[in-house]
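note to self: dont lose this again. the chain is below, predicted strucutre after it. 396 aa total, dont forget to put it in the shared folder this time
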Amino acid sequence: MSFETFDFHINQKNLAGGFATSDEEQGADGRFRKTAWEVIHDFLYDYGIACDGVTIVGTAGFTRAKLSFRHNDGVEEIFQNHKWEIAESWRIKTLQKHLAPIMIFPTGENGIFLDFFNGAGDNPPLQKALKSLRGQKDLCFPFSPGMDFDGHPVFLDAGKNILAGGVTGSGAASLACGLIVQSVCNHPENIPTLVLIDPQGIDLPVFEKLPNVYGQKIFRDVKESEEVLDELQTEILRRKNLLEEAAVKTFTEYNQIVSQTRVRMRQIVAVVYVFNSLRELFAEKLRIRKFCEKLKKLMETAKGLGISFAFFTQRPLSEQFCSALDRGFRQTLFETKIACRTSDQVFSGQLIGRKDAEYLTGNRDLLCVAENRIQHLQQYFIGREEIGRVISVVSA
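---
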């Protein structure tokens, strides 16, 4: 088997009907807006801070306040220093049992965003993102991890490398499942070939019979994963030769000029659950490190060839992974970084290059860093029954 000969057909008939619908528009929840205004007003009054305007929006999971200032010097630092005080005031006023800290972000103008946690709530359904998924024609493989505070799907390009993770139960596995499900819901020309590497063998096996999954299998151990990396290396060399013959530099340019006599290249996305050494065996650690070093070289040579990598982890990245993919490499080669709730600041830094993810509530809220911009998003909910219906339709 090779990537050159691997092909598939996806039956997308009635695919959208496999997802739960919701009559409530995301962003319509305003129960906590007045409370947010009271908390902010009290804080500004107590500390004598002059604010030029407050705008508050509500969603099912969070309430966001935008504060504008004529002079922004030092304002964000003041709020960061008192975030727990503000959070406690919010908890008391909303009668919540648990203290969930607020998230503070710059607005990009003279101002800051304050994101308050509303308490347990429903996650937005995926169907809203699917309605606009096929319209994202400027992306190689459009993928939406969640919605912003206005209730609009945020689309990323999974044709670029992604590093994502969070502790067990925070939504990291759901992110991987969401990417795979959306892969078969895309425009037919944008449906990628998926390589699924999952040493845990827990979350991804349900997808192994999807038509666009390479070999219709999950690569579970280091040896199997090394073998598929060798096959990817062969595909990289083949694609480089095709680009040279066509006198173009990138996968996108090649697909734009191909005629009926040539076959368009498909995007290939390797979805990888990062290997973490579960035992203290030196041989196992050494093998994982060699695997990561091979992977690093592969990623460096795959740029521009329509081959990307999406890494997911539910634990802090292993020593072998971090030493092979040093910090500078992780921060530059992964164009998109996503963090669900992390166990500590170190794990947060490994994922998105900054702290804060340890303060997420774990209610499927995300911090997404892409194009030098950080966003706080609400992840979609995808149920096991929905996944099963989608698989049965596309595999028919």
